[in-house]
Structures are given as structure tokens and as C-alpha cells.
Amino acid sequence: EAGVTQFPSHSVIEKGQTVTLRCDPISGHDNLYWYRRVMGKEIKFLLHFVKESKQDESGMPNNRFLAERTGGTYSTLKVQPAELEDSGVYFCASSQLMTGSSGNTIYFGEGSWLTVV
Amino acid sequence: GDSVTQMEGPVTLSEEAFLTINCTYTATGYPSLFWYVQYPGEGLQLLLKATKADDKGSNKGFEATYRKETTSFHLEKGSVQVSDSAVYFCALKGNTGFQKLVFGTGTRLLVSP
Predict the structure, then answer these.
(1) Nearest of B81, B111, B82, B92 to residue B36 by alpha carbon
(2) Nearest Cβ partner of A50 from B95, B96, B98?
């Protein structure tokens, strides 16, 4: 069974440009999460989809970030325009829909490493 | 809000040494607790978890016990290997409704031969 896959694995862009990150969750996982780790800091939550709906987007830093999950399958995270402080690793994760069950495992992708220069 | 505090790294050990990485948490209710590991150049992998007080999670020789009285979930391994060199993240997730993982800052472990 394929895991969570993310594309691109690495991206270097100039300040002001646009980057779109893509995530394909594990098949059948309705929960999809985006997280980010800026250099040396903790991994921070960005947002959570349940199917195609945004359940929680409290972690999105500002309106330069736009996440979508059309049809409840794959998701994209667009940064436009990118700033230097957006550099970091963007992780996507997915899990089965089991509300109230804290033990269901969240599976992470390998991350998209973004460098803004 | 919920939070996780980990010991700062890097932790540098010789092969076969005993490892402890401290983790404490603040949360309402009774969260589930997790350790994730990120090996060089790879993504986050779940290492072990515990879903209730006094549970012990274990995997690959690593162990952690959910201590409600001290709000801790320290990671231990009796004899580390060079291949254990990685960044270890402690995390928690609440147990009501839709809950997200809350991570600590991560602890880098460096094991030398």
C-alpha cells in the first residue's frame, strides 16, 4: 500500500514567486493535514481537511497560503508570493476518519523542502 | 492550549550507551502521546505511541511510558546504535472530536561508533 506522497521533494524559488506543493494521502484516508517545520523549530500545524472540507485552518500563517482539496482526494498548498520566512519543510499527513479516537495513527509523507532565496 | 516540551539537543552518545530523551506535556483531558522520528533525508515516521495512563509504547528497542502523574512520556533505549542517529519528536493528540498533533521542538540524537 502506498504511503503519503508529496511533490516536489525539494524546491528552491525566489522571493515573490509562487510555489504549489501537492500531497496524495493514503487511499481511503479522509483526514488530511498540513504541517510545517521551520529550521530548528517545532513542527507546527497548518490546517486539517476532512474529505474536501476545511475542518481547522487555525495554523495558516497568513493569506499568502492557500490550501485546497478538490474532490476530497489529493491536496495542494500554494504559497503566493513566497517570502524568505516561508522556507522550511512542509509535511502532509493523513489518517482514517475515526472521530473521538485519539489513538488512530497519523501517517506522514517525506515532506517538501522549500527554500526561498 | 496544549503543548509539548522536549529536552534540547543535540544529544551525543557513543554506540551501546543508554538513551533518555525527556518529554513533558500540558493538555486538557487525557491525550494520546507519540514519538515520531525523522532519519536524515527522510520523512516523519511513527516510532511508538501510548493512548492512556501507564501504557508503555515500544518499538525497535525504544520504550516510553505514559506517566499521568508527572505528565511525562520520556523516550528510552538501552543500547543505541549509529543507525539511531535522527531527530526525535514527542507529540500529543487530544481525544475529543477532531484533534491535531501538537509537537515538541525535536531532539537531535547523534550516535558515534
Answers:
(1) B92
(2) B98
